[in-house]
Amino acid sequence: MNADGTDTGRRRFLTATASVIGGIGAACVAFPFLASWAPSIKTRALGAPVEIDISKIEPGQKITVAWRGQPVFIVYRTPEELAGLNTLTSQLRDPLSKESEQPNYAGNVHRSIKPDFLVLVGICTHLGCVPLYKPVIGSVEAGWEGGFFCPCHGSKYDMAGRVYKGVPAPLNLPVPPYKFVSDTLLVIGDDSPAGVA
Question: What is d(CA 42, CA 95) in angstroms, rounded to the nearest whole number?
Fold first, then answer.
């Protein structure tokens, strides 16, 4: 106590207690506010790499997975489908994929890391429709060697996603970044060199 009868020890204790409680209250108010600025789980997932087990895909089969809100086609091509890639060069607009969106490791005739597995963003380069997978020879028209067909405006792509001449689509189907982390596990959205097989 001081000379005027005031208990200074008690005053300091009450001031410190009020400050601590006020600080806790401010933190409780600030945390939800600051947390609301963080991207949502859905938003974070849209850009995250996607892992796919390819062990159950049969030769000639296509599966579709979602990555960044887009369909991605994974096709296990047969030896016959791979052999046919070299026979279509004169019918394709960009057979060497010089104008197309793709990583460097897909700059080959089969447009993939491993020839038998094709990975493409399944969106037509004309107006953004989703092409149909038509692997059966002659299923679209006479002379059709198999590939992807967009029923909206008639764009056609071969079994490597390369666009035919004379259709509305201007470019080959894009190849997203991807890698194989094992013989049976494919990761889309990450192509860091350590995992490329």
Answer: 37
